[in-house]
């Protein structure tokens, strides 16, 4: 078995708690743990090295909100954290990095304030700035998935690749939290048209077969949340991919 794909568990935050939404709908919320640090420590104990931490309050408020949770996890674990949600200003970005984020993901800002996002990319580099390319019916969605644009996902990624972006997290919103399988066709299209982009698949992961298929497609990374919290994927199974 190949062991190339990096497993990146997700912790989504609302009011400081570990939650999951279904299809990005704030009215379809499940609270899995009121203490995200407990969850992060559990991942670390299983050998996980990377964490995807999303500030859903921040995405809605359009500024960083849950930075204290970020700081707590960053100081009490050795996880490499990529942080997203609500990063709309230079101040937000500084707070995220000062709170312990190793990387940040910018989605809405890359759509709405391209100059600001490009300035971040120039200042911090392509290893620390990740492009968030969230998809709904093949087009980019923004603002915590509350708005859909007319911009095709592949065109959006291609534009930023030309400016130096290397890492992209792409979530298919229609699948997120639904355990219905990831958007294999979308990731295949991105990989075919932009083979040098490090694409991280997100949304819809239901079981280990989904992860194995993404691995066979040579997708570099996969974010999974609900499948772990619902025990459809066990931490023991993920050890197969932890070197």
What structural class do helix, strand and pairing data support? alpha/beta
From the N-terminal CA to the C-terminal CA, the straight-line distance is 13 Å
- Which strand order does the major sheet show? 1-4-5-6-7-11-12-13
Given the structure, what is the number of helices?
Answer: 11
Low-confidence stretches: none
Note the overall shape.
globular
* Strand element count: 13
Pattern of helices and strands: EEEHEHHEHEHHEEEEHEHEHEHH
Multimerization status: single chain
Instruction: Bin the strand percentage.
Output: 25-35%
Helix content: 25-40%
* Rg over CA atoms: 16 Å
Report the biggest beta sheet as strand number plus sense, adding barrel if it closes: 8 strands, parallel, barrel
Mean pLDDT: 92
Please, could you describe this protein's structure?
This protein is 36% helix and 28% strand. It has 243 residues and is of the alpha/beta class. Helix 1 runs parallel beside helix 3.
Short description:
This protein is α/β, with parallel strands linked by helices and 243 residues long.
Topology:
Layout: E1 6-14, E2 17-22, E3 25-33, H1 36-45, E4 50-55, H2 56-61, H3 67-76, E5 80-84, H4 90-98, E6 103-106, H5 108-112, H6 114-124, E7 129-132, E8 135-136, E9 139-142, E10 147-152, H7 153-161, E11 167-171, H8 184-193, E12 198-202, H9 208-216, E13 221-224, H10 226-229, H11 235-238
Parallel strand pairs: 1-4, 1-13, 4-5, 5-6, 6-7, 7-11, 11-12, 12-13
Antiparallel strand pairs: 1-2, 2-3, 8-9, 9-10
Helix pairs in contact: 1-3
């Amino acid at each position: 078995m190949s062991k190339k794909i990096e497993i990146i568990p997700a912790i989504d935050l609302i009011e400081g708690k570990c939650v999951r939404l279904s299809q990005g709908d704030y009215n379809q919320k499940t609270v899995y743990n009121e203490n995200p640090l407990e969850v992060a420590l559990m991942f670390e104990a299983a050998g996980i090295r990377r964490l995807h931490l999303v500030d859903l309050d921040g995405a809605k408020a359009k500024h960083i909100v849950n930075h204290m949770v970020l700081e707590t996890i960053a100081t009490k674990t050795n996880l490499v954290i990529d942080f997203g949600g609500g990063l709309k200003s230079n101040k937000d970005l500084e707070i995220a990095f000062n709170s312990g984020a190793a990387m940040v993901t910018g989605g809405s800002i890359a759509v709405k304030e391209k100059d600001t996002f490009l300035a971040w990319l120039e200042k911090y580099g392509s290893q620390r700035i990740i492009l968030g390319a969230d998809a709904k019916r093949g087009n980019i969605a923004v603002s915590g998935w509350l708005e859909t644009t007319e911009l095709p996902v592949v065109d959006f990624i291609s534009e930023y690749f030309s400016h130096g972006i290397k890492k992209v997290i792409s979530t298919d919103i229609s699948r997120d939290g639904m355990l219905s399988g990831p958007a294999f066709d979308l990731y295949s299209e991105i990989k075919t048209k932009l083979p040098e982009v490090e694409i991280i698949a997100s949304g819809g992961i239901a079981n280990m077969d989904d992860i194995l298929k993404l691995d066979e497609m040579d997708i570099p990374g996969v974010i999974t949340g609900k499948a772990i919290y619902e025990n459809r994927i066990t931490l023991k199974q993920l050890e197969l991919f932890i070197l």
